[in-house]
Design a protein that fits this description.
Radius of gyration: 24 Å
Number of strands: 22
Bound molecules: flavin-adenine dinucleotide, adenosine monophosphate
Shape: globular
CATH class of the largest domain: Alpha Beta
CATH topology of the largest domain: FAD/NAD(P)-binding domain
Strand content: 15-25%
CATH architecture of the largest domain: 3-Layer(bba) Sandwich
Structural class: alpha/beta
Distance between the termini: 72 Å
């Protein structure tokens, strides 16, 4: 069997690349090894099965529970006997996942992508060996091959997986609310999953080795986020490097180092969220000719071309942020380039979001990064001054715009607060069109919306905000 394009891996990078290639007139197959309990293929990768989607389903459900128990009475709504039905919450999450993963097979059918079940290994001469889940072996070939095998959670030897020491996947499936929950790593995944279980009633302690909180975020945002999460009851201990975790089957004892000496804590469950690494098990045969760097990422250039002509790699398997939308866009770029188009991805404008409550999001350069390059100006607008945010009881946080001092070009948009992800997305669109702060300030925003905070932050860049009482004169 020969195809124009074969994609290995059916996550958001791979399945999007496959659909796009088919839309561009190629014959396409997408090989995926993941199967469900009934032996049916499950596309969607980490994102749909054990990542973005189930985590957001639980973040949403747990926030509703938290609001019902903590916030609704403030709105004059008195609900008696609020109870958590965790199995039902998990069923809802699983239902969302199944709907979306099975939807991909429908998209493949509609676009003429051939699904192939099995574990694929790239051989020499653009041949691929596939072993399906009953052990049958076949070989297919392709003119172009796109590697998209994704990533896996990092297991650290000091805290090996066990009944009560789990990765993010296990933390999406707890069957009861742990009384005391430890999280190693205050990165995006640690904060999101810590928030879920904290809202459902766990006492959560997050141990983070670094002294800096959210080192990749704007410092002003990181400071406020830390304060707000602490207020919500997330106990985040910075400068706390875990050195051992022992599970005796009932409790997990965690030892960690701080500048004041060694400490130890006991937890019912421990989530290890110290990052992910590229997944290349079985992917590359000895003579595949595809180079891998010292961290295991497949080496690619800016167009996702590997060291082997006609072989591409996209998504978590290659350098750059491990984000679904980054992988999908790389998939599209590669599909278009295979079809002879001159596509490329703007890596400077990939938005990041932490789906806590409130959300944290940013795109482009933060104040510190921009300052190190040239002269800048900033505009900040607090949600406390937004009519819609106040009406919705969501007045924590702010929007911040970083712009070039001379040209007024927007260099970065940062938000912590209601709908921060959507607000930053608007900023990303503006930046993609080369917008200045003035351009955004001249745009009419609906009233009352939380997006008006973006408008006011843009005006604030040039000291023209209307609803800031203490503006600079
Ligand atoms: P994957 O999604 O990992 O897919 C790779 C696929 O390849 C898998 O299905 C695997 O079974 C298959 N495969 C691997 N090897 C082979 C082989 N040899 N043969 C056949 N098939 C193979 N990102 C966001 O953008 N937003 C979020 O909100 C977000 N939340 C997350 C929450 C959690 C808890 C986690 C863990 C991750 C989250 N991510 C989020 C990250 C996101 O899931 C990944 O960036 C994304 O899934 C990467 O896509 P990918 O296609 O490169 O790889
Ligand atoms: P991320 O890569 O965004 O998922 O974040 C993982 C976080 O885990 C980083 O901030 C690391 O500093 C942190 N981390 C890694 N190892 C340890 C450890 N042994 N103890 C505490 N924190 C850790």
């Amino acid at each position: 069997m020969n195809f124009d394009v074969v994609v290995i891996g059916g996550g958001p990078a791979g399945y999007v690349a496959a659909i796009k290639s088919a839309q561009l007139g190629k014959t396409v197959a997408c090989i995926e090894k993941n199967i469900d309990d009934a032996g049916k293929q499950r596309y969607g990768g980490t994102c749909l099965n054990v990542g973005c989607i189930p985590s957001k389903a639980l973040l949403d459900s747990s926030q509703r529970f938290y609001d019902a128990t903590k916030h609704l009475s403030g709105h004059g709504i008195d609900i008696k006997n609020i109870a958590l039905d965790l199995p039902k919450m998990m069923d809802r999450k699983d239902g969302v996942v199944t709907k979306l993963t099975s939807g991909i097979l429908g998209l493949f059918k509609a676009n003429n992508v051939t699904p192939i079940e099995g574990t694929a290994t790239l051989l020499a001469n653009k041949e691929i060996k596939v072993i399906n889940n009953v052990g049958e072996e076949s070989t297919i070939s392709a003119d172009n091959i796109i590697l998209a095998s994704g990533s896996e959670p990092i297991e650290i030897p000091i805290a090996p997986w066990s009944e009560n020491i789990t990765d993010s996947t296990g933390a999406l499936e707890f069957t009861s609310v742990p009384k005391k929950l430890g999280v190693i790593g205050a990165g995006v995944i640690g904060l999101e999953l810590g928030s879920v279980w904290s809202r459902l009633g766990s006492e959560v302690i997050v141990l983070e080795a670094l002294e800096d909180f959210l080192f990749m975020a704007d410092r002003q945002i990181a400071r406020d986020v830390f304060k707000e999460f602490s207020k919500q009851g997330l106990d985040i201990r910075l400068g706390s490097k875990v050195i051992s975790a022992k599970d005796d089957g009932k409790k997990v004892t965690v030892s960690y180092q701080t500048s004041d000496g060694d400490e130890s804590l006991e937890f019912d469950k421990l989530i290890v969220a110290v990052g992910r690494r590229p997944y290349t098990n079985s992917l590359l045969g000895e003579d595949s000719g595809v180079k891998v760097d010292e961290k295991g990422f497949v080496t690619v250039n800016e167009f996702c071309e590997t060291s082997q002509p006609g072989v591409y790699a996209v998504g978590d398997l290659v350098r750059g942020p491990m984000l679904a939308h980054k992988g999908s866009e790389e998939g599209i770029v590669v599909a278009e380039r295979i079809a002879g188009k001159k596509a490329q991805l703007n890596y400077d404008l990939i938005p990041s979001v932490i789906y806590t409550h409130p959300e944290v999001a940013w795109v482009g350069k933060n104040e510190q990064e921009a300052q190190s390059i040239g002269e800048i100006k900033t505009g900040v607008f607090p949600f406390a001054a937004s009519g819609r945010a106040l009406a919705s009881d969501e007045s924590v946080g702010f929007v911040k715009i970083v712009a070039d001092k001379k040209t007024d070009t927007i260099l970065g948009v940062h938000a912590f607060g209601p709908a921060a992800a959507e607000i930053v997305q608007q900023g990303a669109i503006a930046m993609e069109f080369g917008s200045s702060a003035e351009d955004l300030g001249l745009t009419v925003f609906s009233h009352p919306t939380v997006s008006e905070a973006l408008h006011e932050a843009a005006l604030a860049v040039n000291n023209e905000a209307i609803h800031i009482p203490n503006r600079k004169r």
